[in-house]
UniProtKB/TrEMBL annotation:
It comes from Aegithalos caudatus. It is a single-pass membrane protein. Its EC number is 2.3.1.135. The gene is Lrat. Pathway: Cofactor metabolism; retinol metabolism. It is found in: Cytoplasm, Perinuclear region; Endoplasmic reticulum membrane; Late endosome; Rough endoplasmic reticulum. This is Lecithin retinol acyltransferase. Belongs to the H-rev107 family. The keyword Cytoplasm applies. The chain crosses the membrane at residues 197-230.
Length: 232
């Protein structure tokens, strides 16, 4: 029997949209090599080892665990750890090309970067998720040690192992992703209501306008809802 293509198409739509959380829009003429803010751009004196840092981006949020001494552990899709063991190469700031290939190959790494490289100019919220877990917050040192133990190459899965799963496991002992769950519900609504196809297309167009990313990375976001509609 022929498999229903709707779940697969929905999963692909989800992957493409959630990918935009990590892509950093580059100004024209930069060649994709815009440097992060200079050291000292952020006041790290208010951060404590084990803190959960989150950086709101245009559509979603990126997460990390502060390790102290201006170092943040965070999970990012990255193709490089799967093709080389050269630590100097891997430690370089992840480019959009490396990130996209990592998503496609479902590979990632938990890496340690400076606060500047982690946040890339965005505003930082500290322990903002603690209110959702109440008494489940682990000790700060335990959270930092968990993050340090996971540093290195890992599998990437939008639904099961993204940057939010990483930090919630480290600080709360439970790997969950609220933003993925919320977006899954949105995708389900699109599948159930074919009239939402137009809205999803407009969402894809808005993503291009707001983020300024290359059409080659966002066009699938626009056309996949048509696949869902046709498959329904």
């Amino acid at each position: 029997a022929m498999k229903n293509p709707v779940p697969q198409a929905a999963s692909l739509l989800l992957e493409k949209l959630m990918l935009l959380v990590h892509i950093r829009p580059m100004p024209a003429g930069s060649g994709g090599k815009t440097p992060p803010p200079a050291p000292g751009y952020y006041d790290t004196s208010c951060f404590k080892r084990g803190d959960l840092l989150q950086v709101p981006r245009t559509l979603f949020i990126h997460f990390g665990i502060y390790l102290g001494e201006n170092r943040v552990a965070h999970l990012m899709p990255d193709i490089l750890p799967s093709i080389t063991s050269d630590r100097l190469q891997i430690q370089q700031v992840v480019t959009n090309k490396r990130l996209i290939l990592g998503v496609i190959a479902r590979t990632a790494s938990v890496r340690v970067d400076t606060v500047e490289d982690f946040a890339y100019g965005g505003s930082i919220l500290v322990n903002h998720m603690d209110r959702l877990f109440e008494d489940q917050v682990l000790g700060s040192e335990e959270a930092a040690r968990r993050a340090e133990k996971l540093v290195g190459a890992t599998a990437y899965s939008l639904l099961w192992n993204n940057c939010e799963h990483f930090v919630t496991y480290c600080r709360y002992g439970a790997p969950v992703s609220f933003q993925t769950d919320k977006f899954c519900e949105t995708v389900k609504m699109i599948i159930r209501d074919q009239r939402s196809v137009l809205a999803s297309v407009l969402l894809g167009l808005a993503s291009i306008v707001c983020l300024g990313v290359a059409p080659s990375t966002t066009l699938p976001t626009i056309f996949i809802p048509f696949v869902l509609w046709m498959a329904g």
